[in-house]
Amino acid sequence: MHKNSVAVLGASGYVGRELLEILARHPNVTIEFTSSQSEREINGHRALPLEEAQKHLGDVELVLSCLPHGVSRPAVEEARRAGARAVDLSADLRLSPAAVYGLTEVFRPRVPEAAIVANPGCYPTAALLALLPFAKAGLLDTSRPVVIDAASGVSGAGRSPKRELLFAEVAEDFRAYSVGNEHRHLPEITEHLKPFAGEVDLVFTPHLLPVKRGILATLHLPLKQVLDRSAAEELLLETYRGEPFIRVVRNGIPSLKDVVYRNLAALGVAPVKHVARPMLTVISAIDNLVKGAAGQAVQNMNLMLGLEETEGLRC
Amino acid sequence: MHKNSVAVLGASGYVGRELLEILARHPNVTIEFTSSQSEREINGHRALPLEEAQKHLGDVELVLSCLPHGVSRPAVEEARRAGARAVDLSADLRLSPAAVYGLTEVFRPRVPEAAIVANPGCYPTAALLALLPFAKAGLLDTSRPVVIDAASGVSGAGRSPKRELLFAEVAEDFRAYSVGNEHRHLPEITEHLKPFAGEVDLVFTPHLLPVKRGILATLHLPLKQVLDRSAAEELLLETYRGEPFIRVVRNGIPSLKDVVYRNLAALGVAPVKHVARPMLTVISAIDNLVKGAAGQAVQNMNLMLGLEETEGLRC
Amino acid sequence: MHKNSVAVLGASGYVGRELLEILARHPNVTIEFTSSQSEREINGHRALPLEEAQKHLGDVELVLSCLPHGVSRPAVEEARRAGARAVDLSADLRLSPAAVYGLTEVFRPRVPEAAIVANPGCYPTAALLALLPFAKAGLLDTSRPVVIDAASGVSGAGRSPKRELLFAEVAEDFRAYSVGNEHRHLPEITEHLKPFAGEVDLVFTPHLLPVKRGILATLHLPLKQVLDRSAAEELLLETYRGEPFIRVVRNGIPSLKDVVYRNLAALGVAPVKHVARPMLTVISAIDNLVKGAAGQAVQNMNLMLGLEETEGLRC
Amino acid sequence: MHKNSVAVLGASGYVGRELLEILARHPNVTIEFTSSQSEREINGHRALPLEEAQKHLGDVELVLSCLPHGVSRPAVEEARRAGARAVDLSADLRLSPAAVYGLTEVFRPRVPEAAIVANPGCYPTAALLALLPFAKAGLLDTSRPVVIDAASGVSGAGRSPKRELLFAEVAEDFRAYSVGNEHRHLPEITEHLKPFAGEVDLVFTPHLLPVKRGILATLHLPLKQVLDRSAAEELLLETYRGEPFIRVVRNGIPSLKDVVYRNLAALGVAPVKHVARPMLTVISAIDNLVKGAAGQAVQNMNLMLGLEETEGLRC
Asked: What's the whole-model pTM score?
């Protein structure tokens, strides 16, 4: 059987390793090489320094880049020059017309032919999958802000040693960061919401959870009209009908344990009682390393290579 | 030295035990007896069945009740009949004119003479200490809702064995509950905000954190006018000047580790950027078992007994 | 394609659910039904009360029982009478000649034809895989005791609500239990060691770890002669050559994260310095729910059904 | 009231901060200054660079050094030359005749007059407090090895950022390290056992626990004669009669939660059944930052300054 050849750049972080795990079990791809600045072998795969790896980008059909922001874009552009297509897991191209934004369930038609797919960030994946159905249906009341309080496991902060990420600092703690709309990924949410809802005020506050992996986003949506629970669930079910990697929880609220180690976004809703104007709370849960990064990248890779979108993924 | 005699009812739960720990180190009180349905001795103190304990309520100056909701009120009333004063840590009397609401920093003048103090709930303590300074200053824009996303450690759910509270269920998980303004303590927040701000729409969503203790509340306040960070901090500092158990974090955001094992509420603020109408995010952190329960109860007890408010407490 | 029909009894605990997860992805089996006393549907599978389920045991080729100790044996015997073969995950038959002891890597030749396989306990799996290579090679000095200190994640204690297993009790704690050779699974280790080493004194002390899953056993083996690290590793490598589910870590020590969510036992060794008589420390790590229970059961089931031993399993 | 003046060197690590917390509540001492290479203020105390701090050592009565191994000894010697006494929390002087070994309950008579006290390591504190009563009583069978498997919370590994100590690496993991008697603190145990038991073979294997603080040591002692549980408990009770910081748990086994945040060692025993020659398992639990470091240092400091040994400490 023909196997597609791929390379993974920046493979030694948490996302890179998760990607290698998925690809190693994938029946249709071969990992030709990986890159890492610090290691020469990762999970049994050859790891080259980036400078060296860049000389071989033309040897593979598709490059998946988990390089840091700022470093990734030039590498992806180099891959293109060498004739390879690319999935960029960094934030470098997520707002760029040079790439297709790879929120697969939303932009699927554009992915197969894309030269470059910009894989969405983990917070934006969780937020947009919850927001877009209501935005597309014209239900968002854009005169009022959407409030999003989201919490991420520590793997989302990367694998570089930092004191604030030590076990003895994080365990038994919980904290907000980038409070006051200071998070760098806020524009990614705003921009990809715009085509469907126009300008929307967002109040986005991320928090650091004492767990290894997972994102739970609690979104409070101002609506133009009252939606009861079943109508809101129906809208989500209709929007995501047939989607293998999205689960709408009926009469319930998803939590991290429903999604970790799976390429899955789980959504649940509850109308807000006792408030003067209609609001709906939506809970969205993903594994930041899977549906929020490596798993979604493989969804996009599968489509780009003409494979079944679900190949190699578990939900 | 004269020591005041007290009794602790319902002493075998997490709050009861925390209270016994604090009282055992308190230089001015003697624990005469405790009550428990399942144990006859707790932390070295005699524990009577409630029915038995109720016969002796007149033997002590002050009764602290950690009994379950519904059971506590009759016991507290019995204590009154027997001539003892009471601090009720249950929710039974928090909305009742029969008790003084013991959010000490706000209602201090009424506490010393109170026959019964209704000790605030843990979520309301965290929320109200953050909200009231802005409400009192007339800054809350009550035409828009206040959104509160709060997260609590597992001890807040009590010590009765329930599957959903098992370690193997909670570890590495994070979940919202009572979503859609269904939490039973929401009226406690609304009612005690009302004298200062009138009717305010709240959207309150609690979450369960995989930590033993601590509450972090993230509050998004709609304001009538823009407040920059330093003005908002100044307002908090001014409101809580001289308060030993409240810390305003300047240019920072408090987290659980700043407050656990302390009788302390820590507050931090950040104005929300990029939104059309003024909003301020306030972060409020407490230990649910201390400032959110047993510690605050001892603050109130100290005032009722004419002792130094800080006696026996650490911050 | 023909699929083998199986039933899972006692499916609502942690082991039962893990087994359902594995079997649901298994390409060659169909789960006909499951049993549970409390639930009528588990992970999308029909769950019958045990009494009802027992009427249908003859409808399947193989029954996997995760029933509690004492309840499992009669159900397995009923399955035999109805013509089904069985893998018993309880401890009921692990010392019985009526069943083949399913430590697959050791007793593989006897498994395919077995009517009943008694699936090993999690602690015995971790211990025996570490001990047997040295016992078989005649290297154990049986005049001195083998000391085994082992630690298990909380899922090993089951899913029934018990106070001592609450998150608020277990988090940040670590404790020994059944100290002094009181653990009920000690004879399982002793008996299955006996054919290879004769009577051996064991000192086995289990501990409860604040993690969801995983067992790490630290075994101190008195040896008849000095073995340096590389010789000890060589012996393990030789014993387990070609085994897909055993990994010998060279020049290193395995930890839980090497094995969780995998059907894998990882082994590492270090000779003990500065002692008068030869000793070797062996570290053995497994996931208690996978290689220590459901995964090993599927290994055995695969062999009994004439399938590839690795089918449906990941390592 | 006269307050004794002290300085804390190396105050920015976990032990240093714990020490500052204790000293800040201590009624009889004043922290004149602290040292840190990275910070100029710690917990409200002035922090000088070490070079600067060393010029002022003569200004205080007693110096407590939490400096790293190798750096501490010269600083302590400098303190001596400047006329101050010292408690050295590093390992530098624990085997040196130039200092009194500060395992307070054992060497108390020598502490008050000591110029320098070498504060014991955390693992040695847990191990020696369990071993010495049996060694002193002549009960240890020194022809057989003592096996000690111990597990420590992550704060024991220090506050410097290292990848292996990141939350995402440590959570849900458990691992052994320095396996094969490679741990650098093994001689500290051996040497201080020698005066009471002569040469004893120890097999000491430390493990890293996913908790913030606490050490649990499981010790297997070969005895010259059978001791039943109550006789073993009696021996411990007798040895430690009147000791405020040691608790013998009767008919039970201590765990971390009995000791964390307390200056307390808790001990429990169980005779080992089903073995040919007498063995006793002893479980010893301490908080590595308190009784295993800062708390014990304050015990020693109190004695050196002529204060009550318990002053400022909680158990």
From this structure: 0.97
